[in-house]
Amino acid sequence: MGKPHGLTRYDMLVREGCNAPQKVLPQIFGRLGHRNPVTGTAPDGTPFSAKNLLPAFGKALDHMRDEKDHDSDVAAGMTFFGQFIDHDVTLDATSEIGRRIDPATIRNVRTPGLDLDCVYGDGAEASPHLYAKKPRNHFLAFGHKDNPLDLARTSHGAALIGDFRNDENVVLSQIQGLFITMHNLLMTAFEDKEHLCHKGLAGVRSRAVLEGITPGMMVFQSARRVLRQHYQWCVLHDFLPSFVDKKVLDHVMGEFKANRYPAPFGSDSPVMPVEFSGAAFRFGHATVQSKYVIC
Q1: How far apart are CA 20 and CA 241, in angstroms?
Q2: How far apart are CA 175 and CA 186, in angstroms?
Q3: Tens digit of pLDDT for each residue in 226-269?
Q4: 22-54 b/e (C-beta count within 10 Å ≥ 16 → b)
Q5: Structure pTM?
Q6: Cβ atoms within 10 A of the Cβ of 242, count?
Q7: pLDDT at residue number 175
Q8: Measured in whole angstroms, how far is the alpha carbon of residue 82 from the centre of its chain?
Q9: What is the DSSP code (8-state) at residue 166?
């Protein structure tokens, strides 16, 4: 099989794993536990439908309404960083309200890893609209004639980014912009001191990765890897401790270090469980404040 345009050998490995009959790295959702027998039943006992689901949903929101914001030790920006993370690992583009569906049949449009595919797309060849021709190839597009500090946009104002949801509010839009500009800064730094590229790729032991990087791609791959690792560090050391109890976080990390799956996960668990994507990680919606002061 020939090498698709824009994919390194590592990206090909991930792609083939996702598409393999054995589903080595399945890019689908799934369940950790059994389906809740109540799921799909409206408050009056009838099956949910688009007609009775929306009123029930609205009623539930009214019961949860709280117009008093409570102060927290967590930085306000963490809510929006969490939204960015969510958009980086999940996107269900097929489910419909009121229709029951098996999560294992839903394709996750995003990759389930913290790889910033919402920033990089599928690379400069496969997602050329995300990349700038100036100053050089593999820089990400940013800014436009009306605002050099905004995301790159079409003539109709649509943001040229890997996930359209990251332009749904100004804070999230700026987070997306920060990652784009950080990539461009790293590109400039590695171009100026190209000998540091090997340090940027240090720790990559797979020959499939290193052999797939041509000299012309070394700067881009180094910049992308450093930014991805910085992002992952922020998730682990800033975001998770802001919302997860330290004892729980320490226990989970201890299980990973001991080469064990933390309960309720197992070797046959889904890569992206619907209990996480559709429920647990939705807590962030409740942390949005009614007012923000943006300086």
Answers
A1: 36
A2: 17
A3: 999 999 999 999 999 999 999 999 999 999 999 999 988 888 88
A4: eeebbbbbbeeeeeeeeeeeeeeeeebeeeebe
A5: 0.81
A6: 17
A7: 96
A8: 9
A9: G
